[in-house]
Amino acid sequence: MELSDRRHSLNHMESFSSDAVARVFASYPPDVRLKLTELRALIFGTAKRIPAVGALEETLKWGQPSYGTSETKSGSTIRIDALHSRPGSFAIYFHCQTTLIETFKLRFGKKFRYKGNRALIFSTADKLPTTELRECITTALTYHLKKRGERTPIGRLIH
Question: Residue 61's beta-bridge partner residues?
């Protein structure tokens, strides 16, 4: 994780949008909580780099921490959660009726483990591939801009 993302992680570690989101994070095993906190910081950090995204809304959807662009409606909601059936594993979820996972498979191939057309799967033993994840997050957070034909300078935002 880059230094700016680490700082952002520290800024967001305790500042949850609601007690309900904080309770979900507190319920995770420590190793999963640490990784999901990193992933959460990466989502917020990436969103801050894209003015068209606006402020993210952090809520719970289906009991999972969710990050949406309700202010600008620029993108598709991202969710994160532990994989309760696989201890030590977690995922970042994307809307299954989008082409996001298909796009990621074409772009990154075997760089990620996929769960159908809805998630990227990780283990707590994995080092998060932040550059590639930032690109996935950017693509999700600007998904509707692309559908509306609006342009976003993604290349400058990812690196």
Answer: 64
